[in-house]
Every structure is written in C-alpha cells, then in structure tokens.
C-alpha cells in the first residue's frame, strides 16, 4: 500500500478519486499488503485518518495469508513461535494457533521492531529441533520516512543460512496469497482482475506468478533505472492510480534510458 496509496502518513495524489471511482462503479477491490504487523481494522483506521472511508474487509495482509496456509496444513491448529507484531499473532490465534516457545510446530517470522539476537537464536534452536520455518513474506527491505529498514526476508535468510533449512513465505509474490485474495472477490476469475503495485519484485512478480495482469505505478520505489532490469514486465505502467479514474496525476511517457 505504501507507494501506491500513501507515502508514510500522506495520501498520494489521485488516490481519493480512484477509491471514489471504484465505489461508484461498484468495483470489487482488496488492498493487499506484505506488512504483517497491522490488522485489517488498523489499516482501515489509518486510511480513515487520511480521509478514506474503507471498511476492514477490504484489506488482506500477509499475516492472514500465513495463518490461512498454516490452517490448511494443520486443520485442527498447532503452535507457533512468533517474531513479529500483534497483527500476525492475532491472525494466527484466529485460525486456531497458540503461541509457544517450547517445541512449537512452526517458527513464524514477520515484520516488527522487536527482532534481536536473542530471539533469532531462540528461533534457530527451535528449527534445529524440528520446527518449520515460515515467513510472512520474502521482502529483504522496506522504506520508511527515515530511510530503508530490514525486511522479513533478511531475517529468514539469516535463519536459513544458520540452520541449513529452507523457509516458506506466504506473502507476495507467492501465488498462494493471490489465490487466497482472489477468493475474497466473489464471482471473479483471474481474467476479471488486475494487481496494482509499485514493486517489481513483489507486486508485479505476484501477478506474473498468478497469471493476473500486473499494473505498475511509478509512485513508489520503482524508477526508470530499474524498470527494465527484470525478465518479466508489467502489463501496463502508470504514474499513479489516479490515472485509472482520471484523477490529478499527470501523465508522463515511460521510456527506457539509452
């Protein structure tokens, strides 16, 4: 959502018009985020503070995707050692999982500011005893108002290297999250939807993996310098979501640098 809908606590140009257009046209929509820290209700409240009235059922987080996947693996519930924020633990609780630091079924890594050497060492030893390593997403970094921060994928990589075990990530670009999200859009197939995002390595790749048209907006982290680096391309490139609804975002030609 950051880089598409807002930057930090500032709504991006054209977003309000875009949301109003979707509502007026009775479009089904979901806001997908790899951030496992907030709950859907917290995301709804944040957008309300920014001037958008969007109910919690319009948000789908990597925490929900992770909890749903683990539920599919253990229908009767299980136990998790979690390094993350309340949005992740709440989603796991809601799907029948308890939190445990003693012989859990899974070690689950999400976003947060509480990651430290002690917790990662604890996770490493639990993995050595048989716990499966799960990540909410593979993002190696994120962007804040203060600059870059370490992402979930960075901690997963450290645990993989130390344990010799591979992790499984449930957020974008996994087609798993896309499949779960699509089921929230009643009566729609892959051909009826698109995914809009600002990151080539998560949003656009998620569309490619799921065979859903990916739309790249240049209002976030992607620049002209890295637009043409990857083997895959977006279906279309826009400067911002406001262009979809005829909002205030100005159109500029997207050209590859020579």
Distance from N terminus to C terminus (CA atoms, Å) equals 31 Å
What is the makeup of the main sheet?
5 strands, parallel
The gyration radius over C-alpha positions equals 19 Å
Query: H/E series, N to C?
Result: EEHEHEHEHEEHEEEHEHEHEHE
- By CATH, the superfamily of the largest domain comes out as HAD superfamily/HAD-like
User: Order of strands in the sheet with the most strands?
Assistant: 6-5-7-8-11
- CATH-defined fold name of the largest domain: Rossmann fold
SS-based class: alpha/beta
Q: What proportion strand? A: 15-25%
Considering DSSP H and I runs of 4 or more, what fraction of the residues is helical?
Answer: 25-40%
The average pLDDT score comes to 93
Shape: globular
What's the structural domain tally? 2
Number of helices: 9
CATH class annotation of the largest domain: Alpha Beta
Pfam families: Hydrolase_6 (PF13344), Hydrolase_like (PF13242)
Protein name: Nucleotide monophosphatase
GO cellular component, one term: cytoplasm
InterPro entries: HAD-like_sf, HAD-SF_hydro_IIA, HAD_sf
Overview of the structural elements:
This protein has 258 residues and is an alpha/beta fold. The chain has 2 domains: 6-61 and 172-243, Rossmann fold, CATH 3.40.50.1000; 63-169, 3-Layer(aba) Sandwich (Rossmann fold). Helices cover 35% and strands 19% of the residues. It has 9 helices and 14 strands. The chain has helices at residues 15-24, 40-49, 62-73, 86-94, 117-128, 152-163, 175-184, 200-210, 224-227, and strands at 6-7, 10-11, 31-33, 59-61, 78-83, 97-99, 106-109, 132-135, 141-144, 147-150, 168-169, 194-197, 213-217, 236-238. Strand 13, helix 9 and strand 14 (236-238) form a beta-alpha-beta unit. Helix 3 (62-73) runs parallel beside helix 4 (86-94). 40% of the residues are buried. Residues 247-258 have low confidence and may be disordered.
């Amino acid at each position: 959502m950051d880089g598409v809908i807002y930057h930090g606590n500032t709504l991006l140009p054209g977003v309000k018009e875009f949301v109003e257009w979707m509502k007026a046209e009775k479009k089904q929509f979901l806001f997908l985020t790899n951030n496992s820290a907030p709950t859907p209700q917290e995301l709804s409240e944040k957008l309300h503070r920014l001037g958008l009235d969007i109910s919690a059922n319009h948000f789908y987080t990597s925490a929900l995707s992770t909890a749903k996947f683990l539920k599919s693996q253990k229908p009767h519930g299980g136990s998790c050692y979690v390094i993350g924020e309340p949005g992740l633990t709440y989603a796991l609780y809601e799907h029948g999982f308890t939190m445990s630091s003693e012989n859990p079924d899974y070690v689950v890594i999400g976003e947060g500011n509480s990651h430290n050497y002690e917790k990662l060492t604890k996770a490493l030893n639990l993995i050595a005893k048989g716990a499966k390593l799960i990540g909410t997403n593979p993002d190696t970094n994120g962007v804040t108002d203060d600059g870059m921060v370490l992402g979930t994928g960075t901690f997963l990589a450290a645990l993989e290297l130390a344990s010799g075990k591979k992790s499984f990530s449930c957020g974008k670009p996994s087609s798993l999250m896309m499949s779960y999200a699509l089921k929230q859009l009643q009566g729609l197939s892959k051909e009826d939807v698109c995914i809009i995002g600002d990151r080539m390595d998560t949003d656009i790749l998620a569309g490619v993996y799921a065979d859903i048209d990916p739309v790249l907006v240049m209002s976030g982290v992607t620049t002209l310098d890295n637009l043409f680096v990857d083997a895959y391309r977006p279906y279309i490139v826009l400067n911002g979501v406001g262009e979809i609804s005829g909002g205030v975002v100005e159109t500029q030609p997207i050209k590859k640098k020579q």
